[in-house]
Amino acid sequence: MEQFVIKGGKPLNGAVEIGGAKNAALAIIAAAIMTDNDVKIENLPDVKDVNVMLDAIMDIGAKVERIDRHTVIINGSTIGGFSIDYDYIKKIRASYYLLGALLGKYKKAEVALPGGCAIGARPIDLHLKGFRALGATVDTKYGLVSADAEALIGSHIYMDKVSVGATINIMMTASLAEGKTIIENAAKEPHVVDVANFLNSMGANIRGAGTDVIRVVGVERLHGTEYSVIPDQIEAGTFMCAAAATHGDILIKNVIPKHLEATSAKLMDAGCKIFEYDDAIRVFATDIELQRTSVTTLPYPGFPTDMQPQMAAVLGLAKGTSTVTESIFENRFKYVNELTRMGAQIQVESNIAIITGVEKYAGARVAAPDLRAGAALVVAGLSAEDGVTVVDDIHYILRGYEDFDKKLQKLGADIELVDNERDIRKFILRVS
Ligand code: UD1
Predict the structure, then answer these.
(1) Does 257 sit behind a cis peptide bond, omega within 30 degrees of 0 on the bond before it?
(2) Which of 53, 131, 162, 163 to mutate to test the pocket of ligand 1 (most atoms within 8 A of CB)?
(3) How far is the CA of 94 from the centre of ligand 1 (A)?
(4) 159 in ligand 1 pocket by Cβ < 6 Å?
(5) pLDDT tens across 270-321, in order?
(6) How far is residue 84 CA from its own chain's centroid?
(7) 50 lines ligand 1 (CB under 6 A)
(8) Distance (Å, whole) CA 132 – CA 148
(9) Which residue of 18, 159, 169, 327 is surrounded by the most CB atoms within 10 Å?
(10) What is the mean pLDDT of the chain?
(11) pTM
(12) Do 28 and 42 meet the contact criterion of CB atoms below 8 Å apart?
């Protein structure tokens, strides 16, 4: 098992390059199999979840040619099966995109029920409601979701709850349905827009992505394309929080600053200075005193739930009492116990974390309970002057962050990825 070992307390300074958005990439890879022509995808992050998705489409016969670390050519003409029970796919939530993609293209699909980070119940009823509205018969048993349709017919679908995954999934399937589909109360996240742009570049007819109402006019077939995935707003936001927590000064390159507005606004509330450029953002927190603020997670353009733990790690060091309200997932405070072991003072009442700022954290041995919570523990560890932080279970973190340790090292962090107790001891000896 791998760990991150961190000797914190150094302000992070310098520039970091952000990779492609994991969550956009996962949907785009699934959508790429909806044509029989070549699809070239650039700016793919080299992270575990993305590689599992690529393995899954290969498992059913798609060809995947790796051009370089961040570029692939996918060809879905050789797909021979519509059933995905590939072992690991159950562990990535985004496996549900294969349901929408296969159903749209072949009118049938069978995919193992999604798992993913244990941050809540995470039902997929809205996805299934959408497929049924488009004319599919959907069944869930033995841990599999199966869907098939004689014909897919456009429909008017109201989403009872804003769901990123269901919006994207329905958009994909509707692209190859007959007639017009209207998705109301659609998610507006940047990756919804990115997947719509990608599908449109394959010949789909999707309008309104990024607003509450998405209109899809089905086309007979999709064609090949070349596409570059948008930058990862959560990876960028995590480095922004690392700058704040360590009182550093980081230029975060290859980002779309607009996508980061909610995170920027809250870091400014907390006293950081933010400078926006065309495709970069600088977080300046040298010598500032972090101030309390309150944060509520909401669908985009609200504050992203995927940034909630990292922001809480920052607010744990802010003067005064902050509140963090989680309104999307019910089980997203699992980092609190671990952060408390590093000295944080946090009380959770229902879906609100009440955080009384402390002057500093102390290094401790902690375990990542999920992907973003794990990132938050790293942020806390980077700021902790006393002691060494060992983060266990970093397989969660590696699902979504490419070269996390190397990028942090370039910013001056003392962090190493190790895989045995001996190397942990060696690190501790070196830094103490
Ligand atoms: C996606 C992201 C995840 C992010 C989340 C919210 C991917 C692979 N994952 O997850 O990182 O945290 O958006 O921005 O892109 N819900 C239902 N029924 C459904 C679907 C969702 O009740 O059928 C609920 C969920 O339990 C949750 C809320 O809707 O409370 C939002 O979930 P959703 O936007 O669907 O999240 P995911 O697409 O799973």
Answers:
(1) no
(2) 163
(3) 10
(4) no
(5) 999 999 999 999 999 999 999 999 999 999 999 999 999 999 999 999 999 9
(6) 22
(7) no
(8) 9
(9) 169
(10) 95
(11) 0.96
(12) no
